[in-house]
Queue: 2 jobs
Job 1
Amino acid sequence: MSDSIKYLLDESQMPKHWYNIAADLPEPLPPVLHPGTLKPLGPDDLTPLFPMALIEQEVSTEREIEIPEPVRQVYRQWRPSPLFRARRLERVLGTPAKIYYKYEGVSPAGSHKPNTAVPQAFYNRQAGIKKLTTETGAGQWGSSLAFAGALFGIEVLVFMVRVSHDQKPYRRALMETYGARCVASPSSETQSGRAILAKRPDHPGSLGIAISEAVELAAQRDDTKYALGSVLNHVLLHQTVVGIEAMAQMEMAGDYPDVIVACTGGGSNFGGIVFPFLGAQLRGGKKVRIVAIEPAACPSLTRGKYAYDFGDTAHLTPLTKMHTLGSTFTPPGFHAGGLRYHGMSPLVSHVKQLGLIEARAYHQISCFEAGVQFARAEGILPAPEANHAVRGAIDEALRCKQEGVSRTILFNLCGHGHFDMQAYIDYFGGKLKDLDYEESELAMALAGLPSVAAA
Amino acid sequence: MSDSIKYLLDESQMPKHWYNIAADLPEPLPPVLHPGTLKPLGPDDLTPLFPMALIEQEVSTEREIEIPEPVRQVYRQWRPSPLFRARRLERVLGTPAKIYYKYEGVSPAGSHKPNTAVPQAFYNRQAGIKKLTTETGAGQWGSSLAFAGALFGIEVLVFMVRVSHDQKPYRRALMETYGARCVASPSSETQSGRAILAKRPDHPGSLGIAISEAVELAAQRDDTKYALGSVLNHVLLHQTVVGIEAMAQMEMAGDYPDVIVACTGGGSNFGGIVFPFLGAQLRGGKKVRIVAIEPAACPSLTRGKYAYDFGDTAHLTPLTKMHTLGSTFTPPGFHAGGLRYHGMSPLVSHVKQLGLIEARAYHQISCFEAGVQFARAEGILPAPEANHAVRGAIDEALRCKQEGVSRTILFNLCGHGHFDMQAYIDYFGGKLKDLDYEESELAMALAGLPSVAAA
C-alpha cells in the first residue's frame, strides 16, 4: 500500500520575504476611507492603531517584503510547515484526483495565525509598544497573539466574543497560560461595550463589537496599539509564507495545483496560500482555479454586497471596500467561530470582484462529515473552520471521480480542532443543526450600509 | 537576542531499527511468570493476547530490530520529531545550563504513544486480527491506538478509567472521531467489571481494572487481541525511535547530554529517550546521569517494592518483577492520569535496581508551575505528565545556576496538553491540591503482594 507522503522543506528554504500581491494586481485596491470624513485615509490616520512598520506594509506595492530575522527565528520553531499528499484519503474516496494539503496546525497555537501574530508583536515591540489589544472569535487568533506577546514581552488583552468565551473555557485558559488577559465582549471595560450592555445585558457579542472594544482602548493610549488577526493587507501579506512554501513543496512533488481550496472568514488563510500562486498566474504563469469556501450562515462572498463598510459595529474603524453583509449583521452561532465575520478582506474581495476566484458556501454538518472522514484517513483532526476547506477539496475530488479525470487539488488545512471537541461531540450526538440567517436581517443590515460617494 | 533552536533530521535519517536494550544489559531481566502456575512463561502462553511478532520482540535479545517499511511510512507523517534547544527558557531561568528537549507532541494524537500504537496495529493486522482491546487513563494511549486502528482497518475498543471518562469527554470524542468505541471502566461488558460494579456501582475505576477488562475480552476470541500502551518490553522497544533520533540530533548540535530527564508512569516515554543513550554507555560510551520523575502520589520507583506482581487488579495478567505499589493500590486522582499506575516497566525497574538511573517524586502544583513557565518561554503547552519532566529539567538547570556550572540537560516533552486544559484552569483557579496517598493503604497493598519463590 502506498502511504500518504510528507514534503518537508529544509530550514534554509524557509521564505526570506513575504509576497505582496498588490504589486501584481491588474487594478489597484480602492482606497481606505476615514470613518469621520469618508475621505481617503493617509498613513498618519492609522498611527493611533498600528506602528509605522505595519502601516507601511498595509499600503506598500513592493512585490517582496523582507521578513525580519527575529521573526524568522521564531518561525523556525514550526516552519517550514509540512505539505502532505493525502493518498490515504484519495484511496478512501476512490478518486483519480491527487489531493495535497498544507498543514498549519503545527504551530504552537495550533493554526496559521502565529504567522502574523509573531511579526505584529515584533514590529510593535520594536516601536516601544507595551500592550496590544485585540478581539477573538473562536480563540485561535487570541491565543496566537497571546503566544507572540509572551515571546516579545508585550502585554496582551483579548476581547473574546461572549458566546465563545462562555462555550470555550479551554481556549481562554490557553491564552491565560501564555500570560494574556481574556475578557468576555461586550464588556464593561469600554464605552462601546457598556453602551451595548446597557441595552441588552446578556448580549452574546460579535466580532464587530469585540473589534470596537479593542480599537477604542488602543486609540486612547500611546503605549497601546491594536492588532487584527485577518482582513487587513499586512495580515494577508504575513500569511503568504504558507503559499510560498507550498509552491516550493509542490515543485518537490513534481506537481502543480489545478485547483486551490481554502476556507474564508476574514480571508487570511485563504490569501496566505492562494496569493503566491495567483501572483504567478498574474505575471503570466499557469492558470489555477481558486475556490473560496465560506459558511452558508455567514456568506459574505456569495451573498454580501461589494461596498464600503465599517470593520466594526461601533463604526470606529476606517471604511474599506469589501464583500459585506453589513456591520450590524449578526450571524447565527455555528461552530466555525473563526468564520463568523460580516465582512471580507478587501484584497480577497477585490480579486473576487475581478473574477480571479470562485466562492462557494457550505452548511456545517456536511463540513463536519468531511472532517471526520479526513481524520480517519489522515489522522489529523481539523478545526471546524478548516472542515470547510476539507469539504471543498473532497467535493472537487469526487467531481474528478465522476468525470473520470485526474486533477491536482491543493487545500489549506489551517488549524487543528483540539480546542473544538464540543463541536464534534454535538456532531456525533446529532445535535448539530444547519443554521441559516434570517433573510430579513440580511436585507436590513445591507440597507444600513453607509452611503459613500464612489471614490 | 539568540532564539531557541530547532534541530530537525532529514527523513532519510529516520531510524530503520528500534534499539533493544536487552542486548546490552549487564544482567538479564528476571523471567515473567504465569498467573496460574507462577512458573516462567513460554512465548505460547502469550498468544491469546498478542500476535507472535510482538511476542518475539518481547523476549528478543537482538540489539537491533528492523522497523517494517509500512510502519516507517506512517511514522513519516510526524517523524523525525524535532529536538529543540530551549534558549528562551534558559534565559528566563538565568542558568548557565544548556537545556534541550525532544518534542513528541507533534504526532497526530499529540504524544509519543503512536510510536508504539502504529507498529502494534500493523503486526496485529498482519496476523489477521480484526479487533484490539485496550485500556486508557488520561486518554493519550486510547486515542493513539484509535488513530492507528483507523489507519490499518482494525476495530478498537477502549476501556477508559471512569473518572477520566467522565472528566475528559474531549479525549473520548477524539477516540470516537477516529472510529473507536470508548467505554467507562469498570463496565458491565466484562465479568471483572461486573464483579466490581456489584460491590460498588459508583467505582471510579483504575488502570489495573481497565486492563483486566481489556485482557478478559481479548482472551475470549481468536480474532481479538490486546494492546498495552506502556510497561512491556516491546512497547519500550518501539519508543526507542525517540532516543535514537535524539542522539543524532544532539550530534547535529555538537553536544551530548550530561543529564537526561523523563517522567515515568509505566515507563515508555522514559525508556524511549533513555535506553539508546544508556545502551551506548553500557557498551563503553560516555556516562550519562539519568533521572526518572514520578508523581509523589503514585511513587512506584521511589516508594514501591521491587517484587513480582500482577499488572492488573483481577490478576488475569502474567506476573513481572517490577517496582510496584501493589496491584490493589488506588492512587488519588491527580491530573497526570497517564502516571497513575501501580507498577513500573520491568525494564525500567531493572535498570533502577542495577543503579543505572535515579528517581525523584514531585507533587503536581510545582509541576504545573514549571509547565506554565515553559509555555510562556517556549510556546508549547505540555501535558500534565510531561510537566513532571519539565519540572525535573528546570530543577537541574537551577542547580547548575546555584553551582555556577554549565551542564547539558536533555528532557523528553512527551506530549501536549491540549486535552488537559481543565487541569490548567484548576491550577490558575487555585483549586489544584498536592494529593498524597494514605500510608496505611500503601502498606496494605504492599502486604498483599503475591508470594513468589525467588526465580
Note: Chain A touches chain B at residues 1, 3-6, 8, 11, 70, 73-74, 76-77, 84, 88, 106, 108-110, 147, 150-151, 169-170, 173-174, 176-179, 372, 375-381, 418-419, 421-422, 424-425, 428 (CB under 8 Å).
Job 2
Amino acid sequence: MIRHTLMVNCPDRKGLIFDITRILLSHELNIIENDQFVDTDSNKFFMRTEFTGSFDSGRLYSDLEESLGREASLKLLGSRKKNIVILATKEHHCLGDILIRHFFNDINANIQAVISNHEVLRELTEKMDIPYHFVSHENLSREDHEQKVMTILNQYNPEYIVLAKYMRILSPSFTGLYPGRIVNIHHSFLPAFIGANPYKQAYARGVKMIGATAHFVNHNLDEGPIIEQNIVHITHKESAEDLAKAGRDVEKIVLSKALQLVLEDRVFLSGNRTVVFR
Amino acid sequence: MIRHTLMVNCPDRKGLIFDITRILLSHELNIIENDQFVDTDSNKFFMRTEFTGSFDSGRLYSDLEESLGREASLKLLGSRKKNIVILATKEHHCLGDILIRHFFNDINANIQAVISNHEVLRELTEKMDIPYHFVSHENLSREDHEQKVMTILNQYNPEYIVLAKYMRILSPSFTGLYPGRIVNIHHSFLPAFIGANPYKQAYARGVKMIGATAHFVNHNLDEGPIIEQNIVHITHKESAEDLAKAGRDVEKIVLSKALQLVLEDRVFLSGNRTVVFR
Amino acid sequence: MIRHTLMVNCPDRKGLIFDITRILLSHELNIIENDQFVDTDSNKFFMRTEFTGSFDSGRLYSDLEESLGREASLKLLGSRKKNIVILATKEHHCLGDILIRHFFNDINANIQAVISNHEVLRELTEKMDIPYHFVSHENLSREDHEQKVMTILNQYNPEYIVLAKYMRILSPSFTGLYPGRIVNIHHSFLPAFIGANPYKQAYARGVKMIGATAHFVNHNLDEGPIIEQNIVHITHKESAEDLAKAGRDVEKIVLSKALQLVLEDRVFLSGNRTVVFR
Amino acid sequence: MIRHTLMVNCPDRKGLIFDITRILLSHELNIIENDQFVDTDSNKFFMRTEFTGSFDSGRLYSDLEESLGREASLKLLGSRKKNIVILATKEHHCLGDILIRHFFNDINANIQAVISNHEVLRELTEKMDIPYHFVSHENLSREDHEQKVMTILNQYNPEYIVLAKYMRILSPSFTGLYPGRIVNIHHSFLPAFIGANPYKQAYARGVKMIGATAHFVNHNLDEGPIIEQNIVHITHKESAEDLAKAGRDVEKIVLSKALQLVLEDRVFLSGNRTVVFR
C-alpha cells in the first residue's frame, strides 16, 4: 500500500492534533506513524503523519488549511523519489557512498547530476551513469563561478542540493536561492577549532575524537541547522593526516544518514534548529 | 607481585628502546607491559614500562640517566596511591562518582580533601569521611580567594588537583604553580560554542550530541592538553536544561576515566598534547 | 505548572488519536508532549501524553474508558515520586550511582530500602540514610530465601524493584508476583556467550567491546523486554578482569538511564518488547 | 622513505625487546613505531615494529632467527599491496564500500576478483574494472560448489579472502586451507540470538542496538578470532527490516576497518584471540 506523508508546521494552539486527526479520519485515511513536537520557545507546532488510503488531495489540503489557518505550512508528500544534484570537489568518500546507494536503489532520490570544480570524480560518476559537469573556478570570480553552477542547477531544478565535500565557500546570494534545500557535511571537533587547517589544530591539542556534522546551509555556510552528528575516537598515535582519514569515514556515514532523513521527509526546519522525527 | 612503572620522556635517537631494555635486563627486571611513542613533530620519545622484580632504585636511576642524558625526564613509580585534592562548586555528579569509587577503594588515589566555594557538597563529602573546606569567594578578589585556596592546598600538598566542576576561573598565577597537575572537565559541543551559556547556544542550533573533555589545565583554563573525551546523542525533544543533564552524565564518566589514566601513570604531557598508553 | 502523564495501551483502530485528543480537549487540558506508536505485528496502539491543566480524574478516566473500550489499559500519573526497593549483592557500582542521584534528588524515586544477601553494601547505604536489610541465603533453600525477601518487600510495597547486580537467580514464582515491575541489569557481549563465566569466554575470543542490557524481568531472568543498552570498546590488552571492570562502568550508566525512563513513565511493555518514548 | 614492518610472535622470555632492538640497531635501521604485547595466559610475546632504512633481509632474518629460536614466527613486510579475492552473494553494501576504496587507491590491497553465487553484483564489480566470477550453487553439493570456488581461487592465489556478506556456509575442509587468511563479517546482537532469522528474534525482544563483528574464520564459520566490532542504536519504531538495514551500515564500516588493520599488518592471531596494534 502506498504511504503518504503529511508535514504540518504552524503556531501552537490547543486542539491541533485533534483537528488534524479529525480531518484525516473524515477522509477515511489510516494513520501508520505519527509524530508531533511543540517548540515551546517559538510556540511552533510540528507534526508528521504517515498514512495510507486514497483521497482527493485538493480537498484534503483545503480542509486542513481551513482548520489550521494561513500561517500553517503544509506538505503532502507521496513516496516519489526526490530529485537531487550533488556538488563535490576532489574527495570521493561522501560522493562514492551516495552513488553506490543510488546505484542499488537504496536511497529515496534520483541523482540528476554531479557538479564539480575538478575532474577527479568524473570517472566514478560516469561509471555510475550520472552526468558530470566540470565547472572550473580558475580565473573566475566567486560570483562568476557560482553563476555558471547556477546555470547548470537551473537545467535540473533539483529539490535538494547536496554538498558532498564541496570545498568552495558559497555566497549568501547563492545559498539564499535554496533556503532549507542545501545539505552540507563538515568536520567537527570537540572542542571546535576555528580558522585554517582544523585537523592540524586538533592534532596540536591532542584531541581524542573527531566528528562530523550534517546540516542545512543558511547564509553562513557552516552554521545552519544541524541534522545529524557523530564522532570516532582517535589516539595520540594518529597524525593530522590520520585524523583527516578517520574524519572521512564518519563524514560519509553522517551525510548519508542525514540525507536519508531529509529524503524521507523526516526533518523540519524550526528557526536555526531542526526537528527530526526518526 | 608488586608492579613498578618507569616513565621516560627524552629527545628521540636511534637505540633508545635497546638501551632502556638493556638496563632493565641488567637489573634482572621482568617487563610486563611496554609502550613507546615517538612524536615526530617534536622529535620526542615516550616510553612507559611496567615491570616486576626487586632493584636498587638509586642505581637504576643513575644507569638510566647516564645512558639517556640530561634532557631525559624519568619517573619511577610504585603502585602507591596518589594524593589528590578535589575542587568543586555545587554540582555533585563528578564529585559523587569519584567519592563512591574512592569509598570502595576502586581508584588509585587517596582523596585528602574537598575544597568548595559553596556548602552544597559538604554533607555528601563528610559522609564519605573526607574533610571539606568551604572557601567562600564572596567579597573577595579573585587573587585573595585563590590565596585562601592555596593555603589549604599547601597543607595537603597533593600530587594532583581535580577540578570536579569547579566553576571559578583560575588565574595563570594559580595554575602556573601546578603545571601538568590540574585535571579539569568541561562540556564540549560539536561544533563548539564560545562565550556565555553554551548549552543555550547549542540548543539554539539544534545540536544532536553533546560531549565532555577532560584535560590538563595550563595558563588558559579550558585549553590544556586533552586526556579523554566522549559524547552522548540527543534529540530536538531535549531542552537546554535536558542538554545540561545529559552533559552531566558524560562529564562524570569522562572525568573518572581520565583520572584513572592519570593515576595509573598512563598519561604523558607532550607540549600541548597528551600521549596516553591505555 | 504540574505535568500529568496519560499512558494508553489498547488494540489499534482508526481514530484513536482523534478520540483521545478530543477527550483531553473537552477537559480543557493542554498537551505538552505527545507520542504514539502502533505495533503492527500485534495491532496494539500505544500513546503517552504529557499535559497540564486541572481536571476531575474520575470523569477523565470514565470518558476515556467509554471511548477506548474495556481492553484498553490506562494509566494517569502525576509527577509523584515512585517508591522503589533495590536488591543488590556485593558490587557497589550500580547501587552507588543510584544512591548518589537519590541523595541529590536527581531521580524520580523514593528509595524505600536496600535488600542484600551480603553485608558489604550496608555502610554506604546507611550513610545515604536508606534502610538496609541483610537476608543471608546461607543454609536456606532458594524458596525460603525468596520468602524472606518477599516478607520485607511486602512491608514496603514498592512500585518497582531494581536488581542492581543482585546475583541470585529469582524463581518464576517470585518474578511472577511483580510482572513488569522488576528492572534488571546484565552484562552483554557481542556475540553473546552463554553459560558460566562470560567474561572469561569473551576474553578467550578476544571481543573488542562489551555491553550492558537493562530489561524488565519475566519468568526467565535474563530474557525479559529490553529497555536500554550500551557498550564500551576494549582491546586485547585488557584482561578478563579488566573486561569486568569496563563492564561495570557501562552497567551503571545503562541501569540509571533505564530507571530514569521507567520512573518518568516513558516505557510501555508490548509482549516481550518495550516501547520507549524518550 | 619506504617503511618496513617486522611482525614477531614467539614464546615470551626476558630480554626479547632488548634482543630484537639490538639486532635492528646492528642493521642500522630506524624504528618509527613499535608495539609489543605479552599474552600472559599463553606466555606468548607479540611485537610489531615499523622501521626505515636499507638492509639485507636474508641477514636480518637469520640474525633474528638465531636469537629468537625456532619457535618464533617472523614476518618481514614491505608496503606492497596485498592480493585479495572477495566472496559475496547479493548484498552490495560491504562489497560497494571496498570497491570504492579500491578504485581510489584508499586500501592497501589489490582486488584480484569477486566470486559470487549470484549475478546481482556483476554490474557494479565490472564497472569498477574487477573480474567477476559467477559460480552458481544450484544443483550442486556443498562440496562440489566449494571445489569450483577453490579452482578459481587457485588461479589467483590471494593472500586474503574476504567474505563480504557471502551467505554460504563454508565447510571446515575449505576454511582449513586458508588458516588466518579468511576475514568474515557477521551481524551481532546484544544479547545474541542463535538460530534462524536473528533480526526477527532481536526485533521480538525489542533490542535497542545492533552490531557487527569482523573476524577471522576458523573451522566454525562464525566463531573465529574477533578483529573489530561496533554497534548502532535503534528504537522500537524500527521493524525487523529496518534493523537489517541499520545492520548493513555498521557491517560495512566494521568490515572495512578490519580489512584496513589486516592489510596494514596490524593484526596477530593468538589462539582464538587477536592482538591488534592500531
Note: Residues 4-77 of chain A form a domain with the Alpha-Beta Plaits fold (CATH 3.30.70.260).
